[in-house]
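User: I'll paste a sequence; please echo it back and then give the predicted structure.

Assistant: Echoing your sequence first, then the prediction.
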Amino acid sequence: MIAPIVSDTDPGNEEVLGVVLANLGTPSAPTTEAVREYLAEFLWDERVVDMARLPWWLILHGFILRFRPKPVARNYQKIWTDQGSPLLAISRDQITGLQAVLSARLSVPVKVVLGMRYGKPTIYSALAELRSMRVSRIVVVPMYPQYSTTTTASVVDVVTDISQTHALDAEVAIVESYYSEAEYISALAASVQEAYRDASDDFLLMSFHGIPQRMVDKGDPYYRHCETTARLLADELGLKALQWRLTFQSRFGREAWLSPATDKVLREIPAQGIKNVSVICPGFSVDCLETLEEIAMQNRDVFLQAGGERFRYIPALNDRHDHMEALASIICRHL
């Protein structure tokens, strides 16, 4: 049980706590123009692509931003909803859900806001909103359970820069990872168990977003974090070694990335006698293009065309109540 935080301030000047949920971001629309604008910001981040700036600028603007936005926009069109981007719509639901859980736990007012690393709403606008409310403490939660220099570190960069250049007048803490937190693992296990009620014989594939192998060789702990999450989830579910596998998706570029690749494994396992598969993506806290289109559509087709019979995608934790409870516990410890 997390002890409630008690304010030491005068009741007439009550302490207010702030929480920022920070995720990757999304284009504003499923159009070539909007995707080009989004990719230009995303792919220019040195944490994402660490090439020398001049040659990378030439590649980015001379090739990638000329040809990649159109097919990516078509993929976004497949998953776009009446509420807009799934990642943004679900993230807003998370804000509502987490606000309710934290308000019930804490004895002082709390405000939860959303900030995207790329696109809008920005992390800057999220922190500015909290500053206008004169919050005394802020917890920033990058919604990446497994730490990577390509994701979490980029959020830390932005928050640090804003803190140094704009007086936030608040203590700021950043949750750098939660890949092994018991409540996070429990929520993942519950989502699998719900899917397994009518698919108990499925092979479980745990697919994480990939990063270049070079970055892991340089010391990025991401691969180790993914391995730990996968092992803890398998243990929680009581799975034997031959009942699950760890894979990596979303490869970009020509250099070596973490392996084995999700699509390659799905193409191979039907010939090994695995005809029914469930896929979960524990590194994605919100369903997005990489889960709804890449996994649930593209990789489903890969598996079925290779001779698979039943493919099931297990949704991300999204705004599940147990997910919100897990995040609340993590946030309370940082407060």
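The chain has twelve helices and eight strands. The chain has three domains: 14-25+85-179+321-334, 32-79, 182-314.
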